[in-house]
Amino acid sequence: MQKNDLLNEVLNDLSDLKAANVIPLDVHQTTPLTDYMVIATGNSSRHVKAIADNLVRKMKARHQSLFSVEGDRENEWVLVDLGDVVVHIMQQRTRDFYHLEKLWAPRHSMTALA
What we know:
The structure is a single chain. Helices cover 38% and strands 25% of the residues. By secondary structure, it is α+β, with helices and mostly antiparallel strands. It has one domain: 2-Layer Sandwich (Beta Polymerase, domain 2), CATH 3.30.460. Strand 3 and strand 4 form a beta hairpin. It is globular, with a radius of gyration of 13 Å. The two termini are 15 Å apart.
């Protein structure tokens, strides 16, 4: 799967379960670890878990490589590493505390997908 296609699939899968404030960031020039970082919010620990579980299930169904899932026990912040796309799904208070988008944006934020 192409990187942009993978990113679009991730964004659609997050939308399926109503992830809030989804921000895709193009970080390929900043870090060799990934090309895109996606940050999303769930409104409770159950919602965060449901969003992450849905994303993982759909990626496995597409035979997409899944490198790691971290934080799925506490569900305050779940990281899903798909290689070219790393997804951070957080509860709002956790997102407010860490401000990941401020670390990487605005110079890397994406206003439109190609």
